[in-house]
């Protein structure tokens, strides 16, 4: 598996991986999946939750489908980690475990307790290698999650933009 260079030290990457794996009762299972180069299935709603975003919403906000531009906009807007699963055409913003406060949007869905998320190894940041998933915006430290109010604003703005495009 080829990956882009990661700006974190080995101990920082290990701390992030330990924190992510800690969402499971048996964290060693996630670590083993990552060690084998695979996607680990992590439990949501304990340490973190996720908001599933459609590619159409993200691309409407970022005004681009180029990974470098999408990463730049999402990192600046959400100030937290985002996964991209190209095979399912979805982005996943990692958030605190509390449910979001925005209204309904067909382009965003909160995933909390009783949900699981496939999470790639922290080093996997290359969209060409991460067909099943890669870090569009990687974690920078344990517990560093997307700002819920910024995420709500992104969903609202993107949903309005898409509604306007349909009119």
How would you describe what is shown here?
Helix content is 36%, strand content 19%. It is an alpha+beta fold and 167 residues long. The protein has one domain (10-166). β3 and β4 form a beta hairpin.
Gap between N and C termini? 44 Å
The secondary-structure class comes to alpha+beta
Strand content range: 15-25%
Rg computed from alpha carbons, rounded to a whole number of angstroms: 15 Å
Number of domains: 1
Strand order of the largest sheet: 5-2-4-3-7
Task: Please mark out the parts with pLDDT under 50 across 5 or more consecutive residues, or reply none.
Answer: 1-5
Biggest sheet overview: 5 strands, antiparallel
Shape: globular
Please, how many helices?
A: 5
Q: What is the N-to-C succession of helices and strands? A: HHEEHHEEEEEH
Task: Calculate the mean pLDDT score and round it.
Answer: 89
User: Which percent bin holds the helix content?
Assistant: 25-40%
SS elements, strand count: 7
Any chance you could write out the topology, listing elements then pairs?
Layout: H1 10-21, H2 27-35, E1 40-43, E2 49-54, H3 55-62, H4 67-78, E3 82-85, E4 90-95, E5 108-111, E6 116-119, E7 134-137, H5 148-166
Antiparallel strand pairs: 1-6, 2-4, 2-5, 3-4, 3-7
Helix pairs in contact: 1-2, 3-4, 3-5
Give a short overview.
The protein is of the alpha+beta class. It has helices spanning 10-21, 27-35, 55-62, 67-78, 148-166; strands spanning 40-43, 49-54, 82-85, 90-95, 108-111, 116-119, 134-137.
